[in-house]
Amino acid sequence: MGRFDGRVAVITGAARGIGFGAATRFAEEGASVAILDLDESAAAEAATKLPGEAKHIGVGANVGRSADVDAAVGRVVEELGGLHIVMNNAGVTRDNLLFKMTEDDWDVVMNVHLKGAFLLSKAAQAHFVAQKYGKIVNVSSTSALGNRGQANYSAAKMGIQGFTRTLAIELGPFGVNVNAIAPGFIATEMTDATAARLKLDVDEFRRLSAEHNAVKRVGHPEDIAAAAAFLASDEASYITGQTLYVDGGATLG
Ligand SMILES: NC(=O)c1ccc[n+]([C@@H]2O[C@H](COP(=O)([O-])OP(=O)(O)OC[C@H]3O[C@@H](n4cnc5c(N)ncnc54)[C@H](O)[C@@H]3O)[C@@H](O)[C@H]2O)c1
Fold first, then answer.
1. Segment 43-57, tens digit of pLDDT
2. Which residues form the Ketoreductase domain (predicted)?
């Protein structure tokens, strides 16, 4: 018996990185998983790599576009037979100091993180409220607390926390739990790209990042997957509106 037997989970930005790690964990625990990502073929390819007996699919969609999101949710419900868990994970960075940050840098980041989470949560809640059951896990970041060069990303990630608290209040009476995870440094293509931008070797960047937390190692997608699976499980049904920092103690001071 897996914790997610008979459950259907949609995870955005799950063709790679943290999202794929979470998709793997949900599938291992019995869920039928829809990997939603920008490129349909990359999403479908990732879905073929998921473990478990349940059916998994890949769906191409831009989370910032309502037509894409509504069509994706319709497809998931039709092909996988329902919807019980949503993880709003898709993300991008457009880092720059404020004086160099363009309007486009701001809009792209807001659109993917905040509007994306809004559109998918809204589409999912219709199903969740009707069936009086649902779990939403949003992905924030330690950068929500402030990070040089990330005014757009920090605002979006702290926005995610307010969004999470508000949905928890609105949807709690309908059997829906809404929580967020704020990862610290996780070794993925996103942080590898940051290393390249800073002209640092990937291993050196990871080593330096590990020095800035209590456990002296970087995080991996599996670390976030474990927390996401707990928050999406029925063991966490009395937890809602919370942001869990999964950062090796990086924000302890
Ligand atoms: N890696 C870290 O250290 C870290 C730390 C804190 C928070 N996060 C957050 O975790 C999430 C996942 O990050 P990651 O490190 O796995 O990044 P990643 O770049 O490896 O993966 C992001 C995925 O999101 C997809 N995506 C981007 N825009 C999209 C859109 N409009 N619609 C659908 N999919 C889209 C990409 O195609 C990609 O597959 C992001 O929200 C990120 O901000 C990451």
1. 999 999 999 999 999
2. 7-184
Instruction: Give residue limits of the domains in the chain.
Output: 8-184+220-245, 187-218
Complete DSSP assignment for 154-191? HHHHHHHHHHHHHHHHHHGGGTEEEEEEEE--B-SHHH
Q: What is the CA radius of gyration of the chain?
A: 17
Nearest to 245 by CA among 177, 194, 179, 188: 179
pLDDT digits (tens, 9 = 90+) for 130-173: 999 999 999 999 999 999 999 999 999 999 999 999 999 999 99
Residue type, 95: D
The pLDDT of residue 127 is: 98
Cβ(108)–Cβ(130) below 8 Å: no
Could you give phi then psi for residue 230, rounded to 5 degrees? -60, -50
| pLDDT, tens only, 75-126 | 999 999 999 999 999 999 999 999 999 999 999 999 999 999 999 999 999 9
- Residue list, ligand 1 pocket, CB within 6 Å: 12-13, 15-19, 37-38, 62-64, 89-92, 112, 116, 139, 141, 183, 185-186, 188-191
* Ligand 1 mutation pick, 41, 92, 113, max ligand atoms within 8 A of CB: 92
Q: Whose CA is nearest to atom 18 of ligand 1?
A: 190
Considering the domain delimited by 8-184+220-245, tell me its CATH architecture.
Answer: 3-Layer(aba) Sandwich (3.40)
Give the number of the atom of ligand 1 that is nearest the alpha carbon of residue 111.
31
Give dist(CA 62, CA 39) in Å, integer. Answer: 9
Residues tagged active-site: 153
